[in-house]
Amino acid sequence: GATSSTLTIAAVPATDNGDRYRAVCTIAGSSVTSNAATLTVLGRYWLVTGDAGVFTFGGARSYGPVSGSPVGSVVGMAATPDGAGYWMATADGGVFAYGDAHGYGSAAGIHLNQPVVGMAATPDGGGYWLVAADGGVFAFGDAAFHGSATRLHLDAPVVGMAATPDGGGYWLVAADGGVFAFGDAAFHGSAAGFHLNRPVVGMAATPGGGGYWLVAGDGGVFTFGDAPFYGSEGGTAPSRPVVGMAANP
Known about the structure:
- The chain is an all-beta fold.
- It contains no helices and 19 strands.
- It has a three-stranded antiparallel sheet, with no helix packed on it. Strands 7-8-9 form a three-stranded antiparallel sheet, with no helix packed on it.
- It is globular, with a radius of gyration of 19 Å.
- It starts with 19 loop residues before the first strand and ends with a strand.
């Protein structure tokens, strides 16, 4: 701002993270240029319940569904690049789009060895991945396949996933808080050694990919890497279990 070393602005897309700006001040025909300032985009997030209830944090907005809509058993969600919409995934592989999100297919007609438990979107919003409890990954639209956990020994079932900023990789998270990285995804830590009041049910990555959040069934949020903490439902005992989360760019 005018009297401090930082300036906070709203509604900045994640793609602007890391951009550098200079201020040019002109007075009476003379100009002075400031030193370069780096823009850091902080994330916001939603939490979603099994009956499609949405909780918003850090300034994120809700885009639906309307209360009572027949969505089904929601197991995860993912945000569009500008944060003006999101998808919800159901256990049978169904995908529902809200706000400015578009549908690119689903796994509803695919034979699944285990139910779908989470999803993640590509950076341009032109596709998404679904992940099943056995670590199987299904790609739609412009989403590329970077591997799966089906051949790994899992101490707990996979419950969610998140994609890297360039779409060149993703993380899978298990119910015990274990995190598995694929493609260009970097490992920033896990909750595998934590005492959890409720199992982990989902995750979301920060805009720059330098960290991620994990969320538990009671709405508790755990941060890793450069992920900031904006709040949780962990101390409020939500009437409906949380089943996933999504970061709002």
